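Appendix B.2, paired examples.
Example (i):
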Amino acid sequence: MKILIIEDEIDLLHSVQEFLEQESYLVEFATNYETAVVKVLSYQYDCILLDIMLPGGSGLDILRLLKNEKKDQPVLILSAKDSVEDKVLGLEIGADDYLAKPFHLSELLARIKSIVRRHMHQGDHVISYKDVKLNPDLRQVTVGSKEVILNRKEYDMLYYLMLRPNKLMEKTTIAETVWGDNADQADNLDFIYSQIKNLRRKLKEANAQIDIQAVYGVGYKLI
Protein backbone atom coordinates (compact mmCIF):
# COMPACT_ATOMS: atom_id res chain seq x y z
CA MET A 1 0.00 0.00 0.00
CA LYS A 2 1.46 3.35 -1.08
CA ILE A 3 1.23 6.57 0.93
CA LEU A 4 2.25 10.09 -0.15
CA ILE A 5 3.25 12.51 2.61
CA ILE A 6 3.07 16.18 1.59
CA GLU A 7 4.76 17.99 4.46
CA ASP A 8 7.47 20.62 4.83
CA GLU A 9 8.29 19.98 8.52
CA ILE A 10 11.22 17.63 7.93
CA ASP A 11 11.37 16.15 11.45
CA LEU A 12 7.66 15.34 11.36
CA LEU A 13 7.95 14.00 7.82
CA HIS A 14 10.75 11.61 8.75
CA SER A 15 8.95 10.51 11.91
CA VAL A 16 5.75 9.67 10.03
CA GLN A 17 7.67 8.06 7.16
CA GLU A 18 9.68 5.81 9.49
CA PHE A 19 6.56 4.81 11.43
CA LEU A 20 4.56 3.93 8.32
CA GLU A 21 7.44 2.01 6.77
CA GLN A 22 7.64 -0.05 9.96
CA GLU A 23 3.95 -0.80 9.39
CA SER A 24 4.90 -2.12 5.90
CA TYR A 25 3.61 0.85 3.90
CA LEU A 26 5.46 2.13 0.85
CA VAL A 27 6.06 5.84 1.47
CA GLU A 28 6.78 8.68 -0.95
CA PHE A 29 7.00 12.33 0.03
CA ALA A 30 6.99 15.92 -1.22
CA THR A 31 8.16 18.93 0.79
CA ASN A 32 6.79 21.75 -1.37
CA TYR A 33 3.77 22.62 -3.48
CA GLU A 34 5.42 22.19 -6.89
CA THR A 35 6.78 18.69 -6.18
CA ALA A 36 3.47 17.66 -4.62
CA VAL A 37 1.51 18.68 -7.72
CA VAL A 38 3.80 16.65 -9.98
CA LYS A 39 3.41 13.56 -7.80
CA VAL A 40 -0.37 13.66 -7.32
CA LEU A 41 -0.93 14.13 -11.05
CA SER A 42 1.64 11.54 -12.16
CA TYR A 43 1.03 8.67 -9.74
CA GLN A 44 -1.73 6.91 -7.83
CA TYR A 45 -1.68 6.59 -4.05
CA ASP A 46 -3.76 4.64 -1.56
CA CYS A 47 -3.78 7.68 0.74
CA ILE A 48 -2.31 11.21 0.67
CA LEU A 49 -1.32 12.92 3.92
CA LEU A 50 -1.61 16.62 3.13
CA ASP A 51 -0.37 19.67 5.01
CA ILE A 52 -2.24 22.89 4.26
CA MET A 53 0.65 25.35 4.62
CA LEU A 54 3.33 24.51 2.03
CA PRO A 55 6.25 26.39 0.48
CA GLY A 56 5.01 27.70 -2.84
CA GLY A 57 1.30 27.15 -2.38
CA SER A 58 -1.63 25.81 -0.38
CA GLY A 59 -2.63 22.23 0.27
CA LEU A 60 -6.22 23.33 -0.34
CA ASP A 61 -5.26 24.15 -3.93
CA ILE A 62 -3.92 20.59 -4.30
CA LEU A 63 -7.31 19.33 -3.16
CA ARG A 64 -9.00 21.50 -5.78
CA LEU A 65 -6.60 20.22 -8.42
CA LEU A 66 -7.38 16.58 -7.55
CA LYS A 67 -11.09 17.33 -7.77
CA ASN A 68 -10.80 19.16 -11.10
CA GLU A 69 -8.67 16.39 -12.59
CA LYS A 70 -11.09 13.74 -11.23
CA LYS A 71 -8.21 11.98 -9.44
CA ASP A 72 -9.86 9.70 -6.88
CA GLN A 73 -7.08 9.67 -4.30
CA PRO A 74 -8.03 9.56 -0.60
CA VAL A 75 -6.74 12.56 1.35
CA LEU A 76 -6.13 13.04 5.08
CA ILE A 77 -5.33 16.65 5.97
CA LEU A 78 -2.57 17.10 8.56
CA SER A 79 -2.25 20.70 9.68
CA ALA A 80 -1.51 22.87 12.69
CA LYS A 81 -4.31 25.14 11.48
CA ASP A 82 -7.13 23.78 13.63
CA SER A 83 -9.81 26.37 12.92
CA VAL A 84 -13.29 25.16 12.11
CA GLU A 85 -13.22 27.12 8.85
CA ASP A 86 -10.11 25.35 7.54
CA LYS A 87 -11.46 21.94 8.52
CA VAL A 88 -14.86 22.52 6.90
CA LEU A 89 -13.34 23.98 3.74
CA GLY A 90 -10.93 21.09 3.34
CA LEU A 91 -13.70 18.53 3.77
CA GLU A 92 -15.99 20.41 1.39
CA ILE A 93 -13.31 20.52 -1.30
CA GLY A 94 -12.79 16.77 -1.10
CA ALA A 95 -10.63 15.68 1.83
CA ASP A 96 -11.71 12.48 3.58
CA ASP A 97 -10.63 13.42 7.09
CA TYR A 98 -8.73 16.01 9.12
CA LEU A 99 -6.14 15.42 11.86
CA ALA A 100 -4.71 18.39 13.75
CA LYS A 101 -1.06 18.58 14.79
CA PRO A 102 0.34 17.41 17.11
CA PHE A 103 -1.10 13.90 16.83
CA HIS A 104 -0.31 10.39 18.01
CA LEU A 105 1.09 8.11 15.31
CA SER A 106 -1.27 5.35 16.40
CA GLU A 107 -4.25 7.62 15.72
CA LEU A 108 -2.78 8.57 12.34
CA LEU A 109 -2.50 4.88 11.43
CA ALA A 110 -6.10 4.23 12.47
CA ARG A 111 -7.33 7.15 10.34
CA ILE A 112 -5.36 5.93 7.32
CA LYS A 113 -6.75 2.40 7.62
CA SER A 114 -10.29 3.71 7.93
CA ILE A 115 -9.96 5.96 4.87
CA VAL A 116 -8.41 3.22 2.73
CA ARG A 117 -11.15 0.75 3.71
CA ARG A 118 -13.87 3.20 2.75
CA HIS A 119 -12.32 3.91 -0.64
CA MET A 120 -11.06 0.50 -1.67
CA HIS A 121 -13.42 -2.09 -0.34
CA GLN A 122 -16.55 -0.39 0.93
CA GLY A 123 -15.57 -0.48 4.58
CA ASP A 124 -14.98 -4.23 4.80
CA HIS A 125 -11.98 -5.32 6.83
CA VAL A 126 -11.39 -8.35 4.60
CA ILE A 127 -11.11 -8.46 0.81
CA SER A 128 -12.47 -11.65 -0.73
CA TYR A 129 -12.32 -13.11 -4.21
CA LYS A 130 -13.35 -16.72 -4.86
CA ASP A 131 -11.86 -18.74 -1.98
CA VAL A 132 -9.08 -16.25 -1.21
CA LYS A 133 -9.36 -13.76 1.65
CA LEU A 134 -6.93 -10.94 2.37
CA ASN A 135 -6.92 -9.05 5.68
CA PRO A 136 -5.10 -5.71 5.22
CA ASP A 137 -4.92 -4.99 8.96
CA LEU A 138 -3.15 -8.28 9.66
CA ARG A 139 -1.44 -8.51 6.26
CA GLN A 140 -2.76 -12.07 6.19
CA VAL A 141 -3.84 -14.16 3.20
CA THR A 142 -5.90 -17.32 3.47
CA VAL A 143 -7.16 -19.85 0.93
CA GLY A 144 -10.14 -21.51 2.52
CA SER A 145 -8.97 -22.11 6.09
CA LYS A 146 -5.27 -22.32 5.19
CA GLU A 147 -2.94 -19.34 5.63
CA VAL A 148 -0.59 -18.60 2.74
CA ILE A 149 2.72 -17.02 3.74
CA LEU A 150 3.79 -14.28 1.33
CA ASN A 151 6.73 -11.90 1.35
CA ARG A 152 6.04 -8.17 1.34
CA LYS A 153 6.13 -7.67 -2.42
CA GLU A 154 4.04 -10.78 -3.13
CA TYR A 155 1.44 -9.59 -0.63
CA ASP A 156 1.35 -6.05 -2.03
CA MET A 157 0.90 -7.33 -5.58
CA LEU A 158 -1.90 -9.70 -4.58
CA TYR A 159 -3.59 -6.93 -2.60
CA TYR A 160 -3.45 -4.61 -5.60
CA LEU A 161 -4.78 -7.24 -8.02
CA MET A 162 -7.54 -8.48 -5.68
CA LEU A 163 -8.99 -4.97 -5.61
CA ARG A 164 -9.21 -5.14 -9.41
CA PRO A 165 -10.14 -8.72 -10.39
CA ASN A 166 -10.32 -9.50 -14.12
CA LYS A 167 -8.83 -6.10 -14.94
CA LEU A 168 -5.61 -5.98 -16.95
CA MET A 169 -2.99 -4.00 -15.04
CA GLU A 170 0.09 -2.73 -16.84
CA LYS A 171 3.48 -3.75 -15.51
CA THR A 172 4.54 -0.13 -15.04
CA THR A 173 1.50 0.56 -12.87
CA ILE A 174 2.17 -2.52 -10.73
CA ALA A 175 5.82 -1.56 -10.38
CA GLU A 176 5.00 2.00 -9.28
CA THR A 177 2.42 0.76 -6.79
CA VAL A 178 4.54 -1.96 -5.19
CA TRP A 179 8.10 -0.65 -5.61
CA GLY A 180 7.50 3.11 -5.60
CA ASP A 181 7.41 5.98 -8.05
CA ASN A 182 11.06 5.58 -9.08
CA ALA A 183 10.32 2.15 -10.52
CA ASP A 184 9.38 3.77 -13.83
CA GLN A 185 13.05 4.75 -14.23
CA ALA A 186 14.24 1.12 -14.26
CA ASP A 187 15.83 -0.17 -17.48
CA ASN A 188 13.30 -3.02 -17.50
CA LEU A 189 10.60 -4.51 -15.31
CA ASP A 190 11.87 -8.09 -15.21
CA PHE A 191 11.97 -7.94 -11.41
CA ILE A 192 8.17 -8.19 -11.41
CA TYR A 193 8.24 -11.56 -13.15
CA SER A 194 10.04 -13.42 -10.37
CA GLN A 195 7.64 -12.11 -7.73
CA ILE A 196 4.60 -13.01 -9.85
CA LYS A 197 6.05 -16.46 -10.49
CA ASN A 198 6.50 -17.13 -6.77
CA LEU A 199 3.06 -15.75 -5.95
CA ARG A 200 1.38 -17.95 -8.57
CA ARG A 201 3.24 -21.00 -7.22
CA LYS A 202 2.09 -20.36 -3.66
CA LEU A 203 -1.52 -19.86 -4.73
CA LYS A 204 -1.40 -23.06 -6.79
CA GLU A 205 0.09 -25.05 -3.89
CA ALA A 206 -2.79 -23.84 -1.72
CA ASN A 207 -5.30 -24.94 -4.41
CA ALA A 208 -6.63 -21.41 -4.77
CA GLN A 209 -9.48 -20.82 -7.20
CA ILE A 210 -7.68 -17.79 -8.61
CA ASP A 211 -4.66 -17.35 -10.84
CA ILE A 212 -2.62 -14.48 -12.26
CA GLN A 213 -2.64 -14.36 -16.03
CA ALA A 214 0.19 -12.74 -17.96
CA VAL A 215 -0.64 -10.71 -21.06
CA TYR A 216 2.58 -10.67 -23.03
CA GLY A 217 4.21 -7.27 -23.28
CA VAL A 218 1.44 -5.54 -21.30
CA GLY A 219 0.91 -6.78 -17.77
CA TYR A 220 -1.12 -9.10 -15.56
CA LYS A 221 -4.66 -9.69 -14.39
CA LEU A 222 -6.28 -11.75 -11.65
CA ILE A 223 -8.64 -14.41 -13.01
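Example (ii):
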Amino acid sequence: MIGSFDRRHATLWQRLSGASLALLLLFLPTVIHAHPHGWIDMSMRLVFDDKGRLAALHQSWRMDPFYSLVILEELGQVDGGDSLEAGLDQLGNDIRGNLSPHDYFTELRLGDDRLQLGQVSEYTVLERGGRVEFIFRLPLAEPVTLAGETLRYQVFDPSYYLEVVHEAGDDGPLKEALVVSGRDGCQTRIVPADPDPERVLTAAQLDVDEQGESGLGRYFAETGEVTCD
Protein backbone atom coordinates (compact mmCIF):
# COMPACT_ATOMS: atom_id res chain seq x y z
CA MET A 1 0.00 0.00 0.00
CA ILE A 2 2.73 2.46 0.97
CA GLY A 3 4.55 1.95 -2.30
CA SER A 4 1.61 3.35 -4.26
CA PHE A 5 2.02 6.82 -2.74
CA ASP A 6 4.78 9.34 -3.11
CA ARG A 7 7.48 10.16 -0.56
CA ARG A 8 5.72 13.39 0.43
CA HIS A 9 2.79 11.48 1.88
CA ALA A 10 5.03 8.93 3.59
CA THR A 11 6.83 11.80 5.32
CA LEU A 12 3.50 13.22 6.42
CA TRP A 13 2.48 10.00 8.09
CA GLN A 14 5.83 9.50 9.77
CA ARG A 15 5.27 12.87 11.46
CA LEU A 16 1.74 12.14 12.63
CA SER A 17 1.14 10.87 16.14
CA GLY A 18 0.54 7.15 16.37
CA ALA A 19 -2.98 7.86 17.56
CA SER A 20 -3.92 9.89 14.50
CA LEU A 21 -2.30 7.32 12.25
CA ALA A 22 -4.27 4.46 13.76
CA LEU A 23 -7.50 6.40 13.47
CA LEU A 24 -7.07 7.23 9.80
CA LEU A 25 -5.23 4.16 8.47
CA LEU A 26 -4.73 5.70 5.05
CA PHE A 27 -2.69 8.11 2.99
CA LEU A 28 -4.25 11.23 1.52
CA PRO A 29 -4.50 10.95 -2.28
CA THR A 30 -3.92 14.70 -2.74
CA VAL A 31 -2.31 17.49 -0.77
CA ILE A 32 -4.83 19.28 1.42
CA HIS A 33 -4.06 22.64 2.99
CA ALA A 34 -5.09 23.82 6.45
CA HIS A 35 -5.85 21.87 9.59
CA PRO A 36 -7.91 19.91 10.42
CA HIS A 37 -7.96 17.24 7.71
CA GLY A 38 -10.79 15.16 9.13
CA TRP A 39 -13.28 15.15 11.95
CA ILE A 40 -14.97 12.95 14.52
CA ASP A 41 -18.54 13.35 15.77
CA MET A 42 -18.57 12.44 19.46
CA SER A 43 -21.21 11.51 22.01
CA MET A 44 -20.39 11.41 25.73
CA ARG A 45 -22.18 9.60 28.56
CA LEU A 46 -20.98 10.08 32.13
CA VAL A 47 -21.37 6.86 34.12
CA PHE A 48 -21.91 7.05 37.89
CA ASP A 49 -21.62 4.07 40.23
CA ASP A 50 -24.12 2.95 42.89
CA LYS A 51 -22.49 5.33 45.40
CA GLY A 52 -23.15 8.37 43.24
CA ARG A 53 -19.51 8.73 42.17
CA LEU A 54 -18.33 9.37 38.63
CA ALA A 55 -16.73 6.13 37.49
CA ALA A 56 -16.28 6.31 33.71
CA LEU A 57 -16.79 8.19 30.47
CA HIS A 58 -18.61 6.20 27.81
CA GLN A 59 -17.66 7.71 24.45
CA SER A 60 -18.77 7.11 20.87
CA TRP A 61 -16.66 8.51 18.03
CA ARG A 62 -18.00 8.54 14.45
CA MET A 63 -15.35 9.14 11.81
CA ASP A 64 -16.31 11.49 9.03
CA PRO A 65 -17.88 9.99 5.88
CA PHE A 66 -14.79 10.35 3.67
CA TYR A 67 -12.38 8.57 6.00
CA SER A 68 -15.04 5.99 6.87
CA LEU A 69 -15.48 5.19 3.18
CA VAL A 70 -11.76 4.79 2.55
CA ILE A 71 -11.23 2.67 5.66
CA LEU A 72 -14.13 0.38 4.76
CA GLU A 73 -12.83 0.03 1.21
CA GLU A 74 -9.34 -0.76 2.48
CA LEU A 75 -10.64 -3.39 4.88
CA GLY A 76 -12.71 -4.91 2.08
CA GLN A 77 -9.55 -5.40 -0.01
CA VAL A 78 -7.54 -7.23 2.66
CA ASP A 79 -6.35 -10.63 1.43
CA GLY A 80 -6.96 -13.83 3.34
CA GLY A 81 -10.75 -13.87 3.37
CA ASP A 82 -11.11 -12.13 6.71
CA SER A 83 -14.54 -10.65 7.29
CA LEU A 84 -15.19 -6.94 7.64
CA GLU A 85 -16.11 -7.59 11.27
CA ALA A 86 -12.70 -9.14 11.92
CA GLY A 87 -11.00 -6.18 10.26
CA LEU A 88 -12.95 -3.74 12.38
CA ASP A 89 -12.04 -5.70 15.50
CA GLN A 90 -8.35 -5.39 14.64
CA LEU A 91 -8.82 -1.70 13.90
CA GLY A 92 -10.35 -1.23 17.35
CA ASN A 93 -7.39 -2.95 18.97
CA ASP A 94 -4.97 -0.70 17.05
CA ILE A 95 -6.86 2.47 17.92
CA ARG A 96 -7.02 1.59 21.60
CA GLY A 97 -3.32 0.78 21.73
CA ASN A 98 -2.27 4.00 20.03
CA LEU A 99 -4.63 6.24 21.99
CA SER A 100 -3.61 4.83 25.37
CA PRO A 101 -0.40 6.92 25.76
CA HIS A 102 -2.45 10.03 24.89
CA ASP A 103 -5.19 9.43 27.51
CA TYR A 104 -7.55 8.69 24.62
CA PHE A 105 -7.43 12.38 23.60
CA THR A 106 -9.42 13.15 26.79
CA GLU A 107 -8.74 15.71 29.53
CA LEU A 108 -10.99 15.71 32.58
CA ARG A 109 -11.03 18.30 35.37
CA LEU A 110 -13.00 18.74 38.58
CA GLY A 111 -12.68 22.33 39.67
CA ASP A 112 -8.98 23.15 39.31
CA ASP A 113 -7.80 19.53 39.57
CA ARG A 114 -7.06 17.35 36.57
CA LEU A 115 -8.40 13.83 37.11
CA GLN A 116 -6.38 10.75 36.28
CA LEU A 117 -7.82 8.26 33.80
CA GLY A 118 -7.54 4.50 33.68
CA GLN A 119 -7.11 2.10 30.76
CA VAL A 120 -9.77 1.09 28.29
CA SER A 121 -10.71 -2.59 28.32
CA GLU A 122 -14.25 -2.35 26.92
CA TYR A 123 -14.43 -1.15 23.32
CA THR A 124 -15.74 -2.01 19.88
CA VAL A 125 -15.57 -0.72 16.31
CA LEU A 126 -18.52 -1.07 13.98
CA GLU A 127 -19.95 0.28 10.75
CA ARG A 128 -23.22 2.14 11.08
CA GLY A 129 -24.88 4.14 8.32
CA GLY A 130 -21.74 4.02 6.22
CA ARG A 131 -19.54 5.46 8.96
CA VAL A 132 -16.93 3.80 11.14
CA GLU A 133 -17.70 4.17 14.84
CA PHE A 134 -15.33 3.59 17.76
CA ILE A 135 -17.19 3.04 21.05
CA PHE A 136 -15.34 2.67 24.34
CA ARG A 137 -15.64 2.97 28.11
CA LEU A 138 -12.88 5.12 29.64
CA PRO A 139 -12.71 4.55 33.41
CA LEU A 140 -11.35 7.03 35.90
CA ALA A 141 -8.30 5.86 37.85
CA GLU A 142 -10.48 6.31 40.95
CA PRO A 143 -14.21 7.17 41.14
CA VAL A 144 -14.85 10.73 42.30
CA THR A 145 -17.70 12.57 44.00
CA LEU A 146 -18.66 15.80 42.28
CA ALA A 147 -20.10 17.36 45.46
CA GLY A 148 -21.46 20.43 43.68
CA GLU A 149 -18.27 21.21 41.79
CA THR A 150 -18.34 21.56 38.01
CA LEU A 151 -16.77 18.76 36.04
CA ARG A 152 -15.24 19.81 32.70
CA TYR A 153 -13.81 17.71 29.90
CA GLN A 154 -12.29 18.26 26.49
CA VAL A 155 -11.62 15.66 23.81
CA PHE A 156 -9.11 16.71 21.16
CA ASP A 157 -6.27 15.59 18.93
CA PRO A 158 -3.28 17.61 20.22
CA SER A 159 -1.95 18.06 16.67
CA TYR A 160 -5.37 19.27 15.45
CA TYR A 161 -4.99 16.97 12.45
CA LEU A 162 -8.42 15.68 13.45
CA GLU A 163 -11.19 17.84 14.87
CA VAL A 164 -13.43 16.29 17.53
CA VAL A 165 -16.89 17.83 17.94
CA HIS A 166 -20.05 16.78 19.74
CA GLU A 167 -22.87 15.37 17.64
CA ALA A 168 -24.84 18.35 16.40
CA GLY A 169 -27.76 19.45 14.27
CA ASP A 170 -28.66 22.72 12.65
CA ASP A 171 -29.28 24.34 16.05
CA GLY A 172 -26.07 23.19 17.74
CA PRO A 173 -25.06 20.14 19.83
CA LEU A 174 -27.72 17.46 20.22
CA LYS A 175 -29.16 16.81 23.67
CA GLU A 176 -27.96 13.21 23.52
CA ALA A 177 -24.39 14.34 22.76
CA LEU A 178 -23.82 14.75 26.52
CA VAL A 179 -25.86 12.71 28.99
CA VAL A 180 -25.55 11.42 32.55
CA SER A 181 -26.23 7.82 33.58
CA GLY A 182 -26.85 6.61 37.14
CA ARG A 183 -27.29 9.99 38.78
CA ASP A 184 -30.14 12.51 39.07
CA GLY A 185 -29.95 16.24 39.65
CA CYS A 186 -27.22 17.01 37.12
CA GLN A 187 -27.09 19.90 34.68
CA THR A 188 -25.07 19.65 31.47
CA ARG A 189 -23.93 22.03 28.78
CA ILE A 190 -21.50 22.10 25.88
CA VAL A 191 -19.41 25.25 25.53
CA PRO A 192 -18.24 25.99 21.97
CA ALA A 193 -14.58 26.60 21.24
CA ASP A 194 -13.46 30.22 21.00
CA PRO A 195 -9.91 30.13 19.58
CA ASP A 196 -7.78 33.23 19.30
CA PRO A 197 -7.82 34.55 15.70
CA GLU A 198 -4.05 34.18 15.51
CA ARG A 199 -4.32 30.45 16.22
CA VAL A 200 -7.06 30.11 13.61
CA LEU A 201 -4.71 31.73 11.11
CA THR A 202 -1.85 29.46 12.18
CA ALA A 203 -3.95 26.35 11.67
CA ALA A 204 -5.19 27.58 8.30
CA GLN A 205 -1.63 28.06 7.07
CA LEU A 206 -0.39 24.59 8.04
CA ASP A 207 0.26 22.38 5.04
CA VAL A 208 -0.59 18.70 5.07
CA ASP A 209 3.03 17.78 5.84
CA GLU A 210 3.44 20.33 8.63
CA GLN A 211 2.71 19.90 12.31
CA GLY A 212 1.37 22.66 14.52
CA GLU A 213 2.49 23.61 17.99
CA SER A 214 2.12 20.98 20.67
CA GLY A 215 -1.42 21.08 22.03
CA LEU A 216 -2.83 23.17 19.17
CA GLY A 217 -6.03 21.12 19.18
CA ARG A 218 -6.88 22.23 22.70
CA TYR A 219 -7.76 25.74 21.51
CA PHE A 220 -10.32 24.37 19.04
CA ALA A 221 -11.96 21.92 21.45
CA GLU A 222 -15.48 22.20 22.80
CA THR A 223 -15.86 21.88 26.58
CA GLY A 224 -18.43 19.66 28.20
CA GLU A 225 -19.60 20.77 31.64
CA VAL A 226 -21.54 18.78 34.25
CA THR A 227 -22.67 20.01 37.67
CA CYS A 228 -24.59 17.76 40.05
CA ASP A 229 -26.46 18.74 43.23
